[in-house]
Design a protein that fits this description.
The complex is a heterodimer of chains A (132) and B (118). By secondary structure, chain A is mainly α. Chain A has helices spanning 3-30, 37-60, 66-72, 75-88, 94-112, 116-123. In chain A, helix 1 (3-30) packs antiparallel against helix 2. Chain B is mainly alpha-helical and 118 residues long. In chain B, helix 1 runs antiparallel to helix 3 and helix 1 packs parallel to helix 5 (80-92). Classes of the chains: A mainly alpha (132), B mainly alpha (118). The interface between A and B is large, with 54 and 53 residues.
């Protein structure tokens, strides 16, 4: 891998980590009364994180192949498990890990299976914001 | 094994992912059109409605997280790839290959395993 690509790959992972933090904010918001001050603060965090992620993604896909970016997106599943355990004391079971690994493998395979033509058409979505 | 309540709230999150995919299709449709000015690219009914849907999905996620664990969210969000494929084939005449099909089965299988054995 080129040195420049490694830099953008690291930035991509930083962005994906930030994106995963929006899940923590969503879970916190879920524990608050709808439209209370704390709820609104959590919601503002969610929108801010999603905004930073969307802008970051737009910049990253200028420098990395879209398939690489999409394949790496599956790391958000790992972050979900990590934050779930660390922040919300969720239990990790063998079944959950097997299921998560299968989904990650599926997402990576899906991204790698993307024909060149499709990648180009997806690149057109650059102006549309969220990469989902 | 998932109980009924968990199943219901998982369904709410899945609905949010579906609506999110619909909003992406709307944004893509909007991006394919030509507009008289740059401001009209963003301030047109299709784009505005797409963003309204997107905001709606964030509320659905929050509601779903009242019951479902955080670790399950990104797993269920992976169903977005299924919707993107279906919309790609039906609306944008994209083709699906065998690798993609296997990938989608892996995603669905992973969700089922997570739900049944997790």
């Amino acid at each position: 891998m080129k040195k420049g690509n490694l830099k953008y790959l690291l930035i991509l992972h930083l962005m994906l980590m930030l994106y995963s933090l929006s899940g923590i904010a969503s879970k916190w918001a879920a524990e608050e009364t709808f439209l209370s001050v704390r709820f609104c603060l959590c919601y503002a965090c969610i929108i801010a994180l999603l905004g930073v992620y969307a802008i970051g993604w737009q910049q990253i896909i200028k420098h990395l192949p879209l398939t690489t970016a999409f394949a790496n997106k599956s790391v958000t599943i790992v972050w979900g498990v990590i934050w779930g355990v660390l922040v919300f004391r969720e239990a990790v079971t063998v079944g959950k890990v097997i299921g998560a690994v299968m989904v990650i493998a599926g997402v990576v395979l899906f991204a790698k299976a993307e024909p060149k033509k499709d990648s180009e058409s997806m690149a057109e979505e650059k102006e549309t914001g969220d990469p989902q | 094994m998932m109980d009924k309540k968990m199943l219901l709230y998982s369904g709410i999150l899945l609905l949010g992912v579906l609506i999110g995919a619909v909003s992406q299709v709307m944004l893509k449709k909007a991006a394919m059109r030509t507009y008289p000015s740059r401001i009209r690219e963003y301030l047109n009914p299709l784009v505005i409605f797409a963003y309204v849907l997107f905001v709606g999905t964030t509320f659905l996620s929050i509601f779903a997280y009242r019951v479902i664990p955080l670790s399950m969210g990104p797993i269920l969000e992976a169903t977005g790839y299924i919707y993107v494929t279906v919309f790609g084939i039906t609306l944008f005449h994209e083709k699906i290959n065998r690798q993609k099909l296997i990938a989608l089965f892996l995603i669905i299988g992973g969700i089922v395993v997570y739900a049944l054995l997790g």
